[in-house]
Fold these 4 entries.
Entry 1:
Amino acid sequence: MRSRDLRPAVSSDISLVLTKVELVSIICDKCSFSQQESVQIVDQVFQIFKEPLERGEKVIISGFGNFLTREKRPRRGRNHQTGEQVIISGGRVLIFKPRVMLRRVVNGENRNP
C-alpha cells in the first residue's frame, strides 16, 4: 500500500483521516522499517497512550499536547424526533489540549516570539 500525500489540504473542508494500516504504511515508507516492525511500533505507541488514560491519568507529549480524560455527569436532553425529555448518561470523555508550540504551528505563527 502506498502512503498518501500528507501535506495540508488547500481547502479546510478536507481532513487527514488515517486508518491503522495507512499509518503503518507511512512508517514503513518514511522510516524504512519492515511491515512487521511498523505494526509493532504503532501497537506499542497506542498501548503506551491507552494504559494511563484507562487509569484516568494524563498523557503529556512535550511540544505536542496533553491527552486526558474527564468525567461528565448525567444531564437532561431532548429526543429531537419526539420532543420527549431524556437523561443522557454520564461517563468519561477523552480530551486533547494542544501545547503552545503546536497551536503556533497550526496558526502559522513564528515559533520564536
Note: The helical segments are 20-31, 35-54, 100-106.
Entry 2:
Amino acid sequence: MDNINKTNRERWNALANANVEYSQPFLDFTPEQAAAYIFRYGIIKDVAGKKVLCLASGGGQDSVAFGLLGAQVTVMDLSDIHQNKLNAVARQLNERPRKTLGYYSPAEKFAECVASIG
C-alpha cells in the first residue's frame, strides 16, 4: 500500500473509531425514509432488483437505504473499521423480516432455497 492509501486508511479509521456522524449506518430507516433519502434529488428512480456498488461507503447510509429499497448492494470501503461495521450492518439487515418476502428475513429465504435444492 502506498503512502497516500495508508494515510487515507489511517485517517478514515480514526474517524470511524470516533463515531463521527457520517460513520453511523441508518439502521432505523423505514423503507419510506430510505426512499425519501435516495430519491431526494429526483435523479435516481426505482432501484428494486438493480445492482448497486457503494464505494467509500463510510457508515453505510446509502447502502442501507438502497438495500431497503430492494437493490442488490455491494459495499467496499478503504477503512477496515468501516468495512467491519458495514459487514455487521449487512448481517443485521439480512436477519430483518421483509414484507416483500412474506415477513421472512433474507437469511431465512436463502436457507429455505438451499434446503429445497437438497
Note: The mean pLDDT is 87.
Entry 3:
Amino acid sequence: MGPVIYCIKDEVTKKDFIKAMNEISTGTCIKFIPRRPHDKDYVFAKIGNQCSSKVGRTGGPQVLATSKELYIRNYLKKVTFFKSGFVNEP
C-alpha cells in the first residue's frame, strides 16, 4: 500500500486533520502526503452537512466529509482509517 494522498478543503479543519493523520502515522505504517497537481487519486477532506466516506480506494477524488456536530479528532481518525481500507470489527 502506498501513501494516502490528501487535500483539505476547509482551512478551519486543516490543523485537526493533520493532527489526526500524524497520530495515525506515528502508530502505524500508514503515511500521508499532500496532493500534488498530477495526483488523480486522493482523499478530499471537508466539512459537510453529514458524515460520509466510502471504504477503501475507489479512484479519483474521494470525499471524506464530517459534519460540524461530529467534528472531533477521534472521529477524523476513524474515518481516515476507513479511507485507508480498514473497517470496524463486528
Note: Residues 4-83 form a domain with the Collagenase (Catalytic Domain) fold (CATH 3.40.390.10).
Entry 4:
Amino acid sequence: MLKDFSEKLSYREAMERVEKIINSIEQEKTDVDELSDMVREASSLIAMCQEKLRKTEMEVKTVLKTSEEGDGMVVGQDEKEDISSRNGQDEFIFDDEDTEIPF
C-alpha cells in the first residue's frame, strides 16, 4: 500500500514527507512502535526520489544529445535557423560526464 501511495507523490511531496519523518525522529516525537514503519516509509520515498532523478537526468541528457545532433526534435526548423545565425552567442556547454542536474 505504501508503494502505491508513494508512486503518486511528486518529488517535492516525497522529499517533504522524508524531511517530516527525519524531524520527527530527531526530535524524539516518534513512538518506538512506529519507528520501524517510519524508517521503511522514508527508505521507500528516498528510493522513489532517486529513481525520479535518474529518469529525469536520462531524459535531459537525451534531449541535449538530440539537440546537439540537430535532428529537429527539440526545436523546429525556424528556430534552428535563428539559433545557427547567432554565431555562437548564448551557447551553453554541458559536460555529460560531470554535469549533475540539481533537482
Note: The CA atoms of residues 8 and 14 lie 9 Å apart.
